[in-house]
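Severity: low
Component: inverse-folding endpoint
Summary: output formatting inconsistent between runs
Steps to reproduce: submit the following structure tokens with default settings.
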């Protein structure tokens, strides 16, 4: 069988690293792992992996430093492995250029889904997006015509609502931080007050979701941001 992508695991907890390595190999990925940040940075440069899975608490360096160093020269996808209740850390990692995070303990199916999404985004980076229509479930967004439909019915969104939905759709499957959305929609000088974003999101959900309390298209990542459902 053909080997898929090469994935570098930087994680000092042996159980977790072993579990991830085994899961990846079972799916035909090539996996290389290290428990040290410095060696991780060196391996990132020498191996040029297709993706990095990164723990933030490493024995020799802060994982944030790994992201910073790798981002100096590469846009390769980085998924952070983070503990529960560390929203601040997740946001910081995403703002430094990590692509996504997975909360530990990691389940195999979630791990694989996140890896596939990040690899797809990594491969698409730098190439022109040929697909001009985003579809997930009954939601359809035409970027060219700026038209949003739910179950084939056109939905009227305000300019701001459309910008939010289009930005999330362009990053579908990945979490987008509140700050990233706010600066994309309102510009970098907007107060990082999330209230206006939350108000807009409530309106968006009322228009798009069948049951806004149980969204199927735009999920809340509590304390971090929003995630649009993966494209189908
Ligand atoms: Ca650790």
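Observed output (run 2 of 3):
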């Amino acid at each position: 069988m053909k080997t898929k992508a090469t994935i570098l695991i930087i994680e000092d907890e042996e159980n977790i690293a072993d579990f991830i390595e085994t899961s990846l190999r079972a799916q035909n990925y090539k996996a290389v792992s290290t428990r040290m940040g410095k060696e991780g940075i060196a391996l990132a440069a020498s191996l040029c992996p297709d993706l990095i899975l990164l723990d933030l608490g490493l024995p020799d360096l802060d994982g944030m430093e790994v992201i910073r160093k790798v981002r100096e020269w590469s846009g390769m996808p980085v998924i952070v492995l983070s503990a529960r209740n560390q929203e601040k850390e997740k946001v910081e990692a995403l703002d430094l250029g990590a692509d996504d995070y997975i909360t530990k303990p990691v389940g195999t199916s979630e791990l694989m889904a996140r890896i596939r999404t990040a690899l797809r985004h990594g491969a698409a980076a730098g190439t022109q997006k040929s697909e001009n229509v985003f579809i997930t479930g009954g939601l359809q967004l035409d970027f060219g015509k700026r038209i949003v439909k739910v179950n084939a019915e056109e939905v009227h969104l305000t300019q701001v609502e459309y910008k939010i939905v289009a930005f999330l759709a362009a990053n579908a499957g990945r979490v987008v931080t509140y700050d990233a959305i706010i600066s994309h929609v309102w510009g970098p000088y907007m107060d990082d007050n999330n209230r206006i974003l939350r108000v807009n999101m409530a309106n968006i959900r009322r228009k798009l979701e069948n049951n806004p309390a149980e969204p199927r298209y735009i999920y809340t990542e509590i304390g971090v941001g929003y995630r649009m459902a993966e494209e189908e």
